[in-house]
């Protein structure tokens, strides 16, 4: 029987496993890097063990250090979570060799599915439908478009879509470099690319006594960079006949490798209902909560039961209702999904349960579950994945779940970083999503620029700026030490209005306001009625319609929340400090990271859009391209350099000065 368990992971992953352990009376052990010393998973565990260093390669990916930590803490079992070492057969074997219980499938099963090339051959032999594998060296025009994939690992790393045969060699090399950095294995292969396929996966559970469950399916078609963003169960595409075929294929896949534990068999489905095997993830999935909410199962508890040798019941429970999960990322979808780093000042979401699997609820009730590794006051670093939380809603119907989830996200207070929250709400409210018309090209088909637009339109941003200005005035007055009986900005004789300026998503907003005998008046919009004003709450109305704005002020940022949509504003200084100037044509680092590849040298001639170098941050590679054609006149970085946001990476001097953007 397991009594003390170490989770070889971090963040929400570790916290999710800890929750079940606490219910089982199992002592929890966390490992943490130096960057995660005060992270929630490290502070909540019964025992925490430091892994010296900050990067994943130096800490969470060091199997030897993780096993040493387990033994030092007196753990008798290791749960790998998902990501990092969770699908590393050598790590699983090392855990077993150390005399610890491994919460997962056998090393042989992990190894069998660890190579996408080998696993596809194995699945084909078991009668599971697969897409043909293509050797990159033999791809022809007739094969296009193709998808380059890393043989080891997943999560979108090492993936490239190629439509032009001439671009294939360069893209293969880029995929190999990314795969080697992410998984230590540069092997890649190609397969036909289905631009409008649907990503359907089946949750399987298998015990040591021959019972294999297919626990329903999940749809994960809405993706960015081949990484899932929205997941749901059941799939709106799958009818009973297709479900039966999916379950049979997934069960055959698990049986073919003698699987034990929790796993996911992933398929790519065509519009006609046919499907092909993609891969099997030999671990728990990020999106497992949607399956938990529609079945009432605790999948982590089942993993522990199976590891202790207990049998599964003969059949899994039935599916009830609908669950949708979204991944809330610190990233900017409108600017190439750029990851964001920095302080997360405030982070609150409407929540029914954290990490929990509630008991059956009353008819019509809605469950809002949040799985997160962050809280307000935390800092998002460049060292790990930028996912802030998973927000999951269960409701009796799909439309109810989508509406409730969109509402919960819209009500969230997220201050300090740009996130994909507005994008998620727009997707959940989109007519095509509500109709179930989704596939892996959803963002391309419906326009990322429209889907990523702010929830707060220009008028809402302007009203929010008024609220910010009035709240700032109230705060200053509240802290005044002289003539405290007079309202802020009071004049005996009418004079110029008080002014403040803010930079909003839609542009600069100048606010003029003055205090009169009848109250505060907004100069540009006298029809706006100003009600109660405090440093944190402002009432504004037009006619008989009144809105309440909640205002939070931070260094160089004001965050305003209202039913009109959240707005982040940057105060414009009246007397700005002189800024350090950079040379014209400078390419600045968009985020902190490591330079992993440089494709040019000083003096090279480049064309607009040509890749110059690559940064690696938050598990992804970010391509830096030339903004215009010209000459590389300065290249201050080299492979291995760590750079901060705003660092000069290169200077491209255009041949025609007028071509400078």
UniProtKB/TrEMBL annotation:
InterPro entries given in the database record: ATP-grasp (IPR011761), BC-like_N (IPR005481), Biotin_BS (IPR001882), Biotin_carboxylase_complex (IPR050856), Biotin_carboxylation_dom (IPR011764), Biotin_COase_C (IPR005482), Biotin_lipoyl (IPR000089), CPAse_ATP-bd (IPR005479)
UniProtKB keywords: ATP-binding, Biotin, Ligase, Nucleotide-binding
DNA-binding as UniProt keyword: no
Catalytic activity: N(6)-biotinyl-L-lysyl-[protein] + hydrogencarbonate + ATP = N(6)-carboxybiotinyl-L-lysyl-[protein] + ADP + phosphate + H(+)
Cofactor requirement: biotin
GO molecular function per UniProt: ATP binding; biotin carboxylase activity; metal ion binding
Superkingdom assignment: Bacteria
Domain ATP-grasp: residue ranges: 120-308
Domain called Biotin carboxylation: residue spans: 1-448
SUPFAM superfamilies: Glutathione synthetase ATP-binding domain-like, PreATP-grasp domain, Rudiment single hybrid motif, Single hybrid motif
SMART domains linked to this entry: Biotin_carb_C
Matching Pfam families: Biotin_carb_C, Biotin_carb_N, Biotin_lipoyl, BT_MCC_alpha, CPSase_L_D2
Lipoyl-binding domain mapped to chain residues: 577-653
The protein's name: Acetyl/propionyl-CoA carboxylase subuit alpha
Source organism of this protein record: Catellatospora coxensis
